[in-house]
Amino acid sequence: MNWIKRLLGRRRVYSDLSDEIQEHLAEKIEELVASGVSRRDATYAARREFGNATLIEERGREVWQCPSLESLIADIRYAARMLRKNLGFTSVAILTLALGIGANTTIFSVLNAALLRPLPYRDAGRLLYVWSAERARAINQSTVSIPDLRDWREQNHSFDGMAGYWSGTYNLAGGDEPQQVDGWTVSPDFFEVLGARPELGGTFGSGEARGTSDHVVVLSHSLWAGSFGGEARILGRTVTLDGEPYVVTGVMPSEFSAPFPGVQLWTPWPVRAAATAARGDRFLKVIARLKPEVSIKSAQADMDSITRHLSGIYREDAGVTAYLVPALQQITGSARPVLLVLLGAVGLVLLIACANVANLLLARSAARAKEFAMRTALGAGRARLIRQLLTESLMLALTGGAVGILLTAWGTHSLRTLVVDQIPRAQNISVDSGVLLFTLGLSVVTGLVFGMLPAFTSSKGQLNDSLKEAGRGSGTGAQGHRMRDLLAVSEIALALVLLVGAGLLVNTLRRLHAVNPGFSPGGVLTCEVSLPSKYKNPQIVTFFQELLERVRVLPGVRAAGATMTLPLHASGGGFWGGLNIEGRPAATRESIPIVSFVQVTPGYFRAMGIPLLKGRAFADADNSAQSPKVAIVNATLARRFFSGSDPLGERVCMGEDCSKGPWLAVVGVVGDAALGSLTDPQFPQVFSPHAQGVEGGVAGNMMLAVRTDDDPVALAPAIRDDVHQLDKDQSVAEIRTLERVVDESLAQPRLNALLLGAFAAAALLLASMGIYGVLSYSVTQRSHEIGVRVALGAERYDVLRLVVRHGLVLALIGGGIGLTGALVLTRFMTSLLYGIEATDPPTFLTVFAVLLAVAIAASYFPARRATKIDPMVALRYE
């Protein structure tokens, strides 16, 4: 063996090595030489494999000490060679980690775009929404009147500025073709308060602030690029909005519209008209800029003082308060719960992936037990082995992270399309530097998480036992088996938590599909027609009457009507106002109930399939301003305010001051229909004939509902032609079937169930792979034991039961732990559920049964392989 010592160049250290180790070194080199490697290269490879180190004297004995940089390079090269030698293991590990890291990176990219990036405005952290509220009337978030905004501006000491705006639709002409666009009418200081500058031109200057020129418009970047070709000569050009000329003064940058992608233009509100606005007309949304030295808490106290003062002066402000919400929270608040739940879900998927790879590493470490023993015998300390194993784990994790980034880059486009209408600022989803940094950090942490346990466990192997060729142990012994079982149990527990969450969301979606919306959506086409300001009350009534007459004679049309707002529409039920019942005067303003008020045309209820429960529907005789004022109420209003009495013939008045009327005679009761969403509680509603112009005049923005026996989509061109025959410049918007309206209202819960269900399925797959891997390895390690059992008379069924029972025990333990965890964690999903409790027993039991079935299936295949073990072969090996 002396030639081994000379070739390796470490004469003194081998004098204390056992003959067995020297023989192993010689066999290793001879094996390489036999494969065609030169003896010199074989010797170099052996030296690299067992550590390229130098000897120093320490406490009278020779030990190995590796230079840090050279050692790190050696570890990396060695790790790369070992991973290349086991491509099957490496591929499975990398793909498993890529799945976990890629899922986390993808969801983080969504969360980063929606919640973490600041709004694209100057000092966006100081922007706040200011809402009014009336707690006594259960109004928790309401808009603001122009007089209140004016007083707030003048009396506050906390804000650098306050701006108001309201949304609307405009008929735009002057671009490529006439179209209906969404826009905001804003106070002149709107852009100044936001701290935003235009990409081209300017915004609203001093002229608009004085009210001398309010016919100007600022365009969004998307409208400028899409309808005006991105021409720089757009500045100063005149476009037509609702039949009126407006001069384009500026174009905002694309990032300005990111929080509100649907807003296409901005116009200043008419100051002279604003000066005459009533204090009780609340239709403004208010955004304010906080002074640098002022906290939100002190600003809230300031606003409380102002609203108390106004409440004592004006009857319309009695009981009205104000409250502040940070702008980012207001814009993204609806998405925060679901994004946090999804981030937690992908975190659990990554933990399951880590447990899976840790199990693979434990099994692989057992196969490398002799290698670790040889390195220990050559002087490598435990810390040296741990560092080598962690290097391999980090290389796996970083490679998995790189593949995960590729998966994220591939999937973000599809995800962006999927969530663009449900997640605020979803159009900003991208793989940017923040996402890359997150992935790098996540990969490093992941490598440490799944690599630490195998590294510490494997480095404690016994030298003598590992070097015995006859040893049957794994190198980690019973402790290694327990570790693998523990990891499998943890995978099952985490998978069950995700499955329960997905089951709750699927049940929520199923219950939402079963909700009766209060109307019949089949065979109904809807669209929106918004008349410009050139139309006055009589002309508006005439236009819609003539339009509906034309539509009703189209082939296949059974009924047609129009309404201010459709059920399940974003506007959420038309106007909201106080309800007064004749003979029941309210003691105080706060005691006047708030109800939804909607103008509809005759034929609307029949077209929508809303049942008439009592009385009559509106007729053509009601469709005139000179007709007696009448109303129809829904079942909720009749039940709540006319309990025990017949509402027909009773008179009601909308508003807080009914001294001048008008009083409406109730002529019918209809069924309840959903308002903003299927999950909203039933609200009291009052309907009046459109032509009577109750509560604010005749509405010029109406939505048509047309019921047909044929394909409703086929009616769209004919309806558009009828509109153009009445007004060639009039556009028709939001043409879609009522079934699609209902389907779109379920988009968010469907997305929640889809994403969490996908992550739960991935977790279940990984957990089943974990059970399969543990039992497969157990069968391999227990081949001798199983062979002895068979030789002693054990039947095939006995062996099958032995292995399956092991998997079932793991599943039961993991399932029990998972159920406990699910009981705690699913409570955070309450806001995402409908019609079901977060601790729903049927869901828990069903998921537990599914998990057990999958565990038994994953256990069956290793068990079947165990039944085929030849006892003679197993005993001969022993």
Write the layout of secondary structure elements.
Layout: H1 2-8, H2 19-34, H3 39-49, E1 54-58, E2 61-65, H4 68-85, H5 87-116, E3 127-134, E4 139-142, H6 146-155, E5 159-173, E6 179-186, H7 190-194, E7 200-201, H8 206-210, E8 216-219, H9 221-227, E9 238-241, E10 244-251, E11 265-268, H10 271-275, E12 285-290, H11 296-313, E13 321-326, H12 327-332, H13 336-367, H14 369-377, H15 382-419, H16 433-458, H17 463-467, H18 477-514, E14 524-530, H19 537-552, E15 557-563, E16 575-581, E17 594-600, H20 604-608, E18 612-615, E19 630-634, H21 635-641, E20 651-654, E21 664-670, E22 685-689, E23 701-708, H22 716-726, E24 733-737, H23 738-745, H24 747-781, H25 783-791, H26 796-825, H27 841-867, H28 871-877
Parallel strand pairs: 6-11, 8-10, 17-22, 19-21
Antiparallel strand pairs: 1-2, 3-4, 3-12, 3-13, 5-6, 5-9, 5-12, 7-10, 8-11, 9-10, 14-23, 14-24, 15-23, 16-17, 16-20, 18-21, 19-22, 20-21
Helix pairs in contact: 2-3, 4-15, 5-13, 5-15, 5-16, 6-11, 13-16, 13-18, 13-24, 15-16, 18-24, 18-26, 18-27, 19-22, 24-26, 24-27, 25-28, 26-27
